[in-house]
Each structure stands twice: as C-alpha cells, then as structure tokens.
Amino acid sequence: MPGGTGAAGGGAGLLSEDDRLFAGIELGGTKAIALIVRGRRILASARFPTGQPEQTLGVIGDRLEAWQAEHGRPEALGIASFGPVGLDRSRADYGHITSTPKPGWQGTDLVGHFRKRFGLPIGFDTDVAGAALAEHRWGAARGCDVAIYITIGTGIGGGVIVNGEPLHGLIHPELGHLRVRRTAGDDFAGVCPFHGDCLEGLASGPALGARAGMDGAAIPDDHPVWDRVAAELAEAMAMLMLTLSPRRILIGGGVFQHRQGVLARVRARTAERLNGYVAGVGEAELAGIIMPPALGDRAGPLGAIALAYRSS
Amino acid sequence: MPGGTGAAGGGAGLLSEDDRLFAGIELGGTKAIALIVRGRRILASARFPTGQPEQTLGVIGDRLEAWQAEHGRPEALGIASFGPVGLDRSRADYGHITSTPKPGWQGTDLVGHFRKRFGLPIGFDTDVAGAALAEHRWGAARGCDVAIYITIGTGIGGGVIVNGEPLHGLIHPELGHLRVRRTAGDDFAGVCPFHGDCLEGLASGPALGARAGMDGAAIPDDHPVWDRVAAELAEAMAMLMLTLSPRRILIGGGVFQHRQGVLARVRARTAERLNGYVAGVGEAELAGIIMPPALGDRAGPLGAIALAYRSS
Predict the structure, then answer these.
(1) Going by fewer Cβ within 10 Å, which terminus of chain A is more open, N or C?
(2) Of A116, A81, A75, A74, which Cα lies nearest the Cα of A95?
(3) Contact A110, A95 (CB under 8 A)
(4) What does this protein need as cofactor (chains A, B) (predicted)?
C-alpha cells in the first residue's frame, strides 16, 4: 500500500471471489488511506495527511467521488477510524469520534458526514477492529473464533474479533492502556498523558525513542531497551491469553514490523509468565499464536474494506 | 440454596415461563450441587462433598436417577464444572477436566460419564461460565452484550459472556491467574502454586487468611489488608474494562459476599487507574458495572440449569 494514488495489484487472491465494488477509508491519527476495490482487485488507493476534520474529510470525499465517476457506485463504504469512537447504534454518538485528545476531532460525526455525501451503506468501527477483521477474513486469523490484532506505532491499539464480529461492550477494547508490572530497577516514567507507564506509555514508538535516546526505528535489535520492552509486552500478552483466550495475537504497526528477534523474546517471556497454566501452551505453541499479521501494512486499509463488506 | 435435599422455592420468577424439566450439576473443587427444575420451580437440590471422581459422580448420578423416577425424564442435563475443562467439540478432551492439580480428577470425562448413564443432551462449560450465563439470563447481566462473572472463594475464577454465549477461544478465560501490579512495600509472596502472586495467590480466601493471620471470613472490614487487596483487585478490574469492555463485572463467591464497603473501595481504585480514559466511566458509573451477582450463591447451580437450556 504505497503512498500516492495508483492501482495496486497486491490484493490479488485476498479479497472476495465476486465482482462487487467497495470503498474504504482508514482514518489514522497522522494519515488516512482511501481505497476502492472490485472483487479481488484494489483498483486505486490514495494517502492523505490527517489535518483538520472538515478539510480532511472533504478531500477524501472528493477522491471517492472521482473514483465513483470512473468505476461506478460502490455497494458500500467502510470507515476504520482512530478512536475512541461511538459504536452503539442506539446512541446519538454512533459513528462519531468521541473523547480523543486530537485537536479538533472530538465529536466529529464520521458516519453522518459520508452518509450525507454519498448515501451509501456504511460499515464503521475502530481502525484496529477493522484490521483484526481483515486478518480474520483474509489473513493470519482465518478460522479463529477469538483473534486479536495489535498495532504498535505512534500509539498502541488493539482490536478483538469474537465469532467473526468485532468485540463491542460498554465501548470497545483499549488494549494500549493496560498497566503492566515493570522490570526491577526501571524508573522510566512513561509518556502516556493519561496513565504515564501504561503499555502505550512504555512501548509505543515515542516511548521507545525516549527510553533509548534515539528514533525508535534506529534502535538496534540488541539494544538493552528491548529486554525491558519484551518483558512488558509479555505481561500484556499473558493478560490477553488469560482474559480473551485468543487463538491469534497479531502484532503489526511500524515499531515491530521487522523485529522477529524481539517478537521471539516476547513469546519466551510470555511462556514464563503463564508457567504452564494455560493447558499445553508453552513457547513453541506461542509461536503459532503471537505472530505478525499476514496482511502486513495492508491490514489497516483492507480493514476498511472488511467493514464495508459487513454493512452491505 | 441450602445444604441437604429439599424443595427450594427461591427460584420463583427467575426461570423459564414454560413447564419443561431440566437437571443440573455444579461441580466445584470442594462440593457439588445437583438440582432439578420444572419451569420456574426448583423441585429439589442436593449437596455432595467432592471426593474421588468415580464415587462422587456415582452418588450424584444416583440422586438424579431418584429424581427422574419421581419427576420424570429431564429435557437435558447441564454440567458446570471447575476447570480447566475441554470445550472444543472437535477434540477428544471435550467434556473432560483437563490439567487440574486436584488429585484424581485430571482427565475425568464428565460429559461421557453422564451421557452414558442417562442418554440425555448435555450442556457443558466451566462453573463460572455457567454462573455468568445464569446472571445473563435471569440476573444482573440481563441484556448485556459483554458480561463477566467472577467468584472469589478458595480460588478465583471468571466466566465471560459475549452476545449471549460463553467466550471460548483457545480454551476459556482464566481470570484468577492475572498478574497485577502490587502496592508499594508489600512483600507477601502469594499462595498460588503456579504463579505465587497472581490474583488468586493474593486475594482468594486462603491468601487473605495468610496475609491477615486469621480465617478470611473473620477479617474485619477495616483491617489494613483490604487496602492492598482492593488496590490489587482494582488493577484486575481495569484490565477487564480495557480488554473486554464489559457492561457488568459481577463479583460473587464467599469472600466478598457481605463486603459492600470493600467493593466500593475496589470501584474507587478502579476509577483512579482508568483515569477517565474509558469514555464517561468514573466511580459513579462503575457502581452500575462492578456489582454483586443478583442470584447470589444460586448463580452457580442455576448456571448448570442455564447450560442445560442451551443444549436442548
């Protein structure tokens, strides 16, 4: 899913067998990706910086309109958004971004905006629930009754699929803000404005940068910060195994994308924490549970398409 | 649900409107309860010590047989068992107790035993999933898309209901073994043989007894141990809010049954930990989420009945 606009053939084999047209928007905190697919083919995709709401949603809508003129009217539009978002259809804040600290976006009515402009059925959920749904439909979580997708980037978020549907209760999971036990002698205060040393405050890109004194992407795999971070992530993995009993925990996002060695350390520490209690799950079994997403960085935008499929 | 055998009228208004006959067994680590219900009435119930498997299942079966002779053949039998249990119908260990440390019970085929003896449809799950299902059907979790039932007694366990069904993934939730951050200056090692200071190792009846130097039930509500325990339980409550986004967390079991003041402290500490991040959920809202079960100590045996309903 490269930047700019263009036809991308990378979806071949992933999407539906039929020939229907769907559009999607993955709205992230720093960038948005719009795309349009027909059957198995991604016809076009485009990337936009996430600026102020009216302007950002306007230019995305203009692009969708241009694609509609070129390719025809989509069956449905999927919107996978950064959160927290309103997901209860009986409430007035359904389809809105709710309590975000992101300037200007609090209370933005995403579903209302695009429904008014296009009159299409709209599938809506968090960006991470969309990615989890895409992995469940086309990726590494196919056939899994319980599956989790976690993204570790500028923030940490997670989506949960139970029996083919995103998990919604009071709101939706907020896995990035779990509090974990720290390793001995570690006094890093964490960078989360709400919680300090929650998972996002400890292991997101900005947190890693602050801990290692260099850009997160530049930290070598043998840097000592990974020992602490692997232990902290393992605490969260053990929590997820004990609360949700997932068959997959797929870890995506920029920070871990090419860090197989760190992921192996996370699995080893997770096995230590579970200590044989979850029947038959040791380090070897965790290699088939805690994995990278099969769709890679396409999980997010294909998540928007998976949400469009659900709505139609 | 008193000990011994007898008709219990306490179910009036709780159970189904129809007049069908169902039987249930709640199999706990120290005691088992069998019961038979018709429509809204509990016709009879009986309590048994949990001894060796063959003897225990034998005398429970004898009682069910006597009830069947008196009342007729039930539509189905529900079994709600201590765990871990096998819940995947495609596996050979379905219906078995799997890796329990309880002497003699590892590998016991509960469903096979009663199916062979009675030839009835059998509903099967953990004791806590059964209790959660009963609270969802007749109790404090009615209408909740996501609900959790936790029992704090000689051990700690939890069942999760999502969209009306017990949550099963790789296995089932094991909420008692969550690891939580400890309060400053606390060096109690915990009593869990697997994990030391997991939730069960810190806050179960035996753990409380060890921490306070007296029987758990005798600890006064103003004993300082509750400050630490309320903080530890609040850590777990915050984890559950962030992972499962439940509308109810019902806390039952012997330890907390009459400790409303401690429960209020757990809610206050939970609100501090979430720190406003889960939209609109502060201490006041948590009073409608973290609650005692409406069915009280009948949640367990009625859980077996709720499982019987599901199977027929």
Answers:
(1) C
(2) A81
(3) yes
(4) Mg(2+)
> Position of tokens 């905006």?
A113
* Residues of chain A positioned with their CB less than 8 A from the CB of B195: 273, 275, 277
CB contact under 8 A, A235 and B144: no
Report the residue of chain A nearest B180, measured CA to CA. Answer: A181
**Structure-token match 């209020």, residue found:** B264
Cβ contacts from A onto B, under 8 A: 138
State the average pLDDT for chain B: 92
**Testing the interface with B: which of A192, A198, A277 to mutate, by most B Cβ within 10 A?**
A277
Domain ranges of chain B: 5-127, 140-293
pLDDT digit string (tens) for A128-176? Answer: 999 999 999 999 999 999 999 999 998 999 999 999 999 999 999 999 9
CATH class entry, domain B5-127: alpha beta
Please say whether the beta carbons of A147 and A173 come within 8 A: no
Judged by a CB distance cut-off of 8 A, whether residue A98 touches chain B is yes
**Inter-chain CB proximity A238 and B179 less than 8 Å:** yes
Residue contact A244–B244, C-beta within 8 A: yes
Residue B284, H or E segment: helix B283-286
Asked if domains B5-127 and B140-293 share a fold, the reply is yes
Q: Using CA atoms, how far apart are residues A44 and A305, in angstroms rounded to an integer?
A: 13
- Asked if B181 and A178 come within 8 Å (Cβ–Cβ), the reply is no
For residue A171, give the nearest of B163, B169, B278 by CB distance. Answer: B278
Asked if the model's pLDDT at residue B113 lies above 50, the reply is yes
Q: State the Cα–Cα distance between residues B292 and B102, nearest whole angstrom.
A: 28
Q: Rounded to an integer, what distance in angstroms lies between the CA atom of residue A305 and that of residue A45? A: 12
> Residue B164: how many CB atoms within 10 A of its CB?
12
Cis check for the bond before B292: say yes or no (omega within 30 of 0). no
What's the CATH architecture for A140-293? 2-Layer Sandwich (3.30)
